[in-house]
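Hi all, posting the design record for the shared folder.

TITLE: backbone redesign
STEP: 1 of 1
STRUCTURE INPUT:
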């Protein structure tokens, strides 16, 4: 075999090797392709000049059952911090000056999820022992200075602060529509209608005593609910741009509208809001009261 022939054979072998290397270099890699498909998509974040970021959810330490507050025209008010089923700690207060000052009074149980005025110096409370095994209704016996023996609450609306929470109403004792998350508050009525606020900010409403619930619009950062479950609702929420608590009103279809910001309001503890006609009082986490005479649009 001549040198010329050997050179031709060597050149052919080199060409074959080059083709093999090129094939493996451009061949699709199935493992790499699978890894790319499985990688989760990144979360888009707005630029400094873009849309505002979503409202943050309240910190876990701030999420708990709201204060129960009741108000009558003329300035009489009752307020209770519910306490917890595990540790009790309920406290009840009364006011005769639309919440400008509060006086402590006896709590009818270790847990007090609801207080309600039925007259200037008359009202009732729902009280339960630590553990929340049995909740009873207590009526005042001495101008809101004491309570009667507890009786069955029957179909009275109230919220037991366990997780998952239980709600008593015309349908009996039922599971809260908030499920495993915290049920922040319940605004009752004298009818089968009621509304609750869940820790995710969603409003849940019932018109049949609690048998079924319909979800309304979300109020991110919601901390308390009050008002008329069949009409205009009130709420307090922690929101961006408000160094305190934002005040919101809702129509019968659940659309929320911010009316004002309670600048400096404490939001580290349980808060509450209620109204009687056009008079509204909001109570912050430190027990400070803010009063409005125009349905919550402005506060003194």
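Okay, here is what came back for every position:
SEQUENCE:
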């Amino acid at each position: 075999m001549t040198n010329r022939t050997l050179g031709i054979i060597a050149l052919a072998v080199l060409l074959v090797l080059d083709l093999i290397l090129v094939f493996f270099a451009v061949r699709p890699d199935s493992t790499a392709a699978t890894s790319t498909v499985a990688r989760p998509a990144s979360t888009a974040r707005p630029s400094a000049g873009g849309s505002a970021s979503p409202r943050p959810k309240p910190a876990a330490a701030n999420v708990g059952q709201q204060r129960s507050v009741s108000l009558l025209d003329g300035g009489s008010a009752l307020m209770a911090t519910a306490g917890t089923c595990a540790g009790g700690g309920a406290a009840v207060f009364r006011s005769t000056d639309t919440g400008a000052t509060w006086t402590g009074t006896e709590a009818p149980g270790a847990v007090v999820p609801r207080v309600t005025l039925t007259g200037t110096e008359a009202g009732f409370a729902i009280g339960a022992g630590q553990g929340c095994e049995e909740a009873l209704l207590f009526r005042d016996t001495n101008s809101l200075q004491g309570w009667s023996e507890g009786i069955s609450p029957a179909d009275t609306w109230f919220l037991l602060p366990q997780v998952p929470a239980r709600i008593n109403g015309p349908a009996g004792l039922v599971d809260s529509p908030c499920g495993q998350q915290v049920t922040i508050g319940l605004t009752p009525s004298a009818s089968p209608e009621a509304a609750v606020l869940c820790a995710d900010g969603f409003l849940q409403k019932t018109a049949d005593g609690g048998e079924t619930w319909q979800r309304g619009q979300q109020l991110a950062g919601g901390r308390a609910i009050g008002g008329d479950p069949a009409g205009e609702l009130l709420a307090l929420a922690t929101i961006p741009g408000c160094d305190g608590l934002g005040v919101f009103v809702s129509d019968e279809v659940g659309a929320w509208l911010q009316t004002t910001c309670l600048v400096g309001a404490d939001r580290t503890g349980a808060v509450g809001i209620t109204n009687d006609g056009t008079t509204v009082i909001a109570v912050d986490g430190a027990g400070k009261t803010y009063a409005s005479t125009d349905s919550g649009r402005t506060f003194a």
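COMMENT: Confidence is low (pLDDT under 50) at residues 2-61.
Let me know if anyone wants the other runs.
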